[in-house]
Amino acid sequence: MKKSSKLMVISTAVSLFTLATGTIATALVNASTKNNQENIMQIDQIATKQLNRAGYVFRLSSNSLMNPMYRQAEQVEKYSKAYVEQLVVNKILFKVTEVNSLNKHIMVHIIDQSGKYQGWVSLLTGIYNVKALKRNLKPLVKAEFEVMRIKDSQGKKAALKELIKVEQEIKRLPKRNKEIGENSLLELQRWLNHGNYQFIPSLMIGQY
Predict the structure, then answer these.
(1) Rounded to an integer, what distance in angstroms lies between the CA atom of residue 153 and that of residue 135?
(2) Maximum CA pair distance of the chain?
(3) What is the pairing mode between strands 127-129 and 94-100?
(4) What is the mean pLDDT of the chain?
């Protein structure tokens, strides 16, 4: 076989190999992306159930941005500042009906009891739980805050050692608030085990 023919065969083989390798790599990336999205959706579904159970206990934060629809962040047309400020002033109570974090922003859909006011806000900065302001629950909130702070600064192992203080505060709660404390402890343990901020205890939303 002539040298030029050999080079052509080799070149063709390399091209085919490159094409095949690229196709496989693309397929693997697509599969990985799909699996990652499905995992995020499962986490969001669990988080939705957790926050929905809390009921109408959330108010808009004073600096909240509220969106009528969930879209890509840069495409969202937000409610006017005056509109949101009026909801803040009126102290409208909301519940969470959906968690969505596919676009790397943990957003929640909230709705009031009348169904008149609803929209999408940031889970971590857009709302807060009014029960965390109760005088009897403040020591518990403080204890949970410390556990979360230690988890983020020193790791899960160090944070787990602090759970005893949360349990002690729950024991001190009046009977009417014990269920709130016990549920919050379970949610805190889930957050510690999984590390996803979608699982932040509902009591701690707006506090951490």
Answers:
(1) 28
(2) 93
(3) unpaired
(4) 85
